[in-house]
Design brief:
alpha+beta; 52% helix; Lipoprotein
């Protein structure tokens, strides 16, 4: 996983309009309920896309041999996006674009944050809170706060609305990384157990080799002593008959 290295991307989605229930005459209103629902859907789609990218990288690297990949995607359903107090920032007189802002709160369940932090600690990676600070994300008590900027624009036919989100990249990075580490926690623990068992086996082999070396060395010392004793005895024997 790459931390703090994602390029700002503008995410977009469309809302289909039918019949006479158009959201706009020339411009879409920022506080229209259907428009804000569309923004929420874009946030969810973006998170799903981020997790898909994380998953592909993990599979390619062989990092999740003991885990069910589907669980990472399903974890996105635990994130709650709340949008309040939309504002109209600019109505472009030369196009149907309307620039808006709204207060976004994204809530991550505390158990997922806990699992993510535990997994991060095991591999010496910064905590969720530290990661948020590093990204410049307003994060406190498992909640992310952002003044979300977005643009609403109807198509030329007037039957659809396009929603473009401008400044969600770091927020989505924090959420996707948090979910990914929480997902990886069991695999990290299994890997550590395997590494510990391998280390123990290596120590036992080393001890066995050391014991064999010591035994061989003792035998050599004993043989040398016996040889020396035999030489001394032989010299004494020769002296008796001189």
């Amino acid at each position: 996983m790459k931390l703090n290295n994602k390029t700002l991307v503008v995410f977009a989605s469309t809302l289909v309009l039918t019949g006479c229930n158009n959201l706009f005459s020339n411009h879409v209103k920022c506080d229209d309920e259907s428009a804000t629902s569309l923004v929420t859907q874009v946030l969810k789609d973006d998170l799903a896309q981020s997790l898909e990218g994380e998953l592909k990288a993990l599979i390619k690297n062989g990092s999740i041999k003991d885990l069910d990949p589907a669980k990472l995607k399903l974890s996105a359903k635990n994130i709650q996006f709340s949008l309040l107090d939309s504002r109209t920032d600019f109505i472009d007189p030369n196009s149907p674009k309307t620039t808006c802002s709204i207060d976004l709160t994204a809530t991550i369940p505390s158990d997922l944050v806990k699992k993510s932090d535990e997994a991060r600690a095991k591999v010496d990676v910064m905590s969720v809170e530290e990661h948020a600070n590093n990204l410049g994300v307003n994060y406190e008590n498992n909640k992310i706060h952002l003044t979300l900027e977005y643009v609403l624009q109807p198509t030329d036919k007037g039957d659809k609305v396009l929603a473009l989100l401008k400044n969600t990249s770091n927020v989505q990075t924090l959420i996707s990384e948090t979910l990914t580490y929480a997902f990886l926690k069991p695999q990290i623990e299994k890997n550590q157990i395997k590494n510990l068992e391998a280390s123990k086996a290596a120590v036992l082999r080393n001890n066995a080799n050391t014991a064999t070396y010591d035994a061989n060395n003792d035998a050599i010392v004993a043989a040398d002593a016996a040889t020396e004793a035999a030489v001394v005895a032989a010299e004494g024997y020769d002296e008796e008959y001189e």
